[in-house]
Amino acid sequence: MIRVKSYAKINLHLAVLSKRQDGYHNLQTIFARISLYDEVFLEAKREPVVELLVRGDKGVPQGSRNLAFKAARWYLNRYKIEWGVRILIDKKIPPKSGLGGGSSNAAAVIRGLGQFFKEWDPEIVRDSVVLGADVPFFISDIPFAYAEGIGEIIEPIENLSFREKVALICPDFGVSAKEAFELYDKFGSGHGKIMEKNHLIETLLSEDWKKMKDVFFNDLEAPLFKKYPDLLLNKDLLINEGSLFSLVSGSGSSVFGIFEDKKDFVCPKGELIWCEFI
């Protein structure tokens, strides 16, 4: 049996550049991997059947509707492997939280199957975007990256040594990426900014949270606040508690804050989870 840690991510920056004819949006984003993770266990089977069991969260799709199941099918079909796999996922990452849990699980399955079957090719990272926009980042297995397109054009960002802590506030509801982008299409963001790639990367490499606070933003944040004011309350709470930098992560519903050290405070509108960059 193969065990793979399936880490969450936050988006330190997310700009929506344009809407594509296929309904997706072109983005400019910075991914950061964090220490919150699910565990994915894989056991190869001689019979060409995919089985999936998810433990720990009743809100996660089971069976063929789960992205990890689809990822296994996709990998086995890609390499014409006439085997199957039994998948067990122990969930810790809240679903529909903007932390990439489903995409991370899918990537963990693909990396685990690659480890077992020894089948891999240079295009697998980019091609995996058919499963989800965040999957290429997770398959790349890197701590920080700049991404474009819908997330499939990945550029690793290296030589970073953040020691700060990441506070997540996760409410008791989720927001799908589809809903978040529909809200963006309806309300817009108010930013209207397209940042130079090199400027974004240099800002991150400075490791200066004041600079990042001045440069980074999330275009999905303002429209989400209109429908879900609790998310704005959570962001304000993090700022009032001394966060160096705070944003909604990805398409929500989680909000993160960067702190020098962990601290205790009450979150009336969600669960507080402490993480680190990893």
Describe the protein's architecture and organization.
This protein is an alpha+beta fold. It folds into two domains: 2-156, Ribosomal Protein S5, domain 2 (2-Layer Sandwich), CATH 3.30.230.10; 165-276, GHMP kinase, C-terminal domain (Alpha-Beta Plaits), CATH 3.30.70.890. It has nine helices and ten strands. Strands 1, 2, 3, 4, 5 and 6 form a six-stranded mixed sheet that branches. Strand 3 (50-55), helix 1 and strand 4 (84-90) form a beta-alpha-beta unit. Helix 5 (177-187) packs across helix 8 and helix 8 packs across helix 9 (229-240). The mean pLDDT is 96.
In total, how many domains does the architecture comprise?
Answer: 2
Mean pLDDT over the residues: 96
Q: What sort of overall outline do the alpha carbons produce when their principal axes are compared?
A: globular
Number of helices: 9
CATH architectural group of the largest domain: 2-Layer Sandwich
Radius of gyration from CA coordinates: 18 Å
State which percent range the strand residues make up: 25-35%
Secondary-structure map:
Layout: E1 2-19, E2 25-45, E3 50-55, H1 67-78, E4 84-90, H2 101-117, H3 124-127, H4 135-140, E5 144-149, E6 153-156, E7 165-170, H5 177-187, H6 197-205, H7 209-215, H8 221-227, H9 229-240, E8 245-248, E9 255-259, E10 271-276
Parallel strand pairs: 3-4
Antiparallel strand pairs: 1-2, 2-4, 2-5, 5-6, 7-9, 7-10, 8-9
Helix pairs in contact: 1-2, 5-8, 8-9
Q: Notable features of this structure?
A:
Ribosomal Protein S5, domain 2; 278 residues; alpha+beta; four-stranded antiparallel β-sheet; Alpha-Beta Plaits; single chain
